[in-house]
# Entry
Amino acid sequence: KLQSYQSDASRNVDSILEQALKYIDLCYTQELSVEILAGKCNVSPSYLYRLFAEKLGVSPHSAILNRRLTAARSMLIHTNLSLNDIAANCGFNSQAYFSDCFKKQNHGLTPSAFRQQAEYTP
# Structure
């Protein structure tokens, strides 16, 4: 009995994380917080935070930020949108915050420098 309960529990954890990650994927362009995400998964923010930390090694906030920055990198490479438009399209409140986050995740490289570098990559 205990073994089947544990596998049900781990399936439940996996489905909560899957649901959370899917929601991040679909809604990263909108206002999105740990509280909103937890509400969509019908769990408490602290429980969701703990699941992310234990199973994925990141916080929900980091997962949201990573998804936004992945989309931003793609837009920098594949569009001529302004940095302001890219920031807005990826769910950042301001271009300054977008640039700060981008530089932290890309070893000090600014979004503009990243775009220039990508243009010259064969």
Observations:
- Residues 50 and 59 are 8 Å apart (CA to CA).
- Residues 1-6 have pLDDT under 50 and may be disordered.
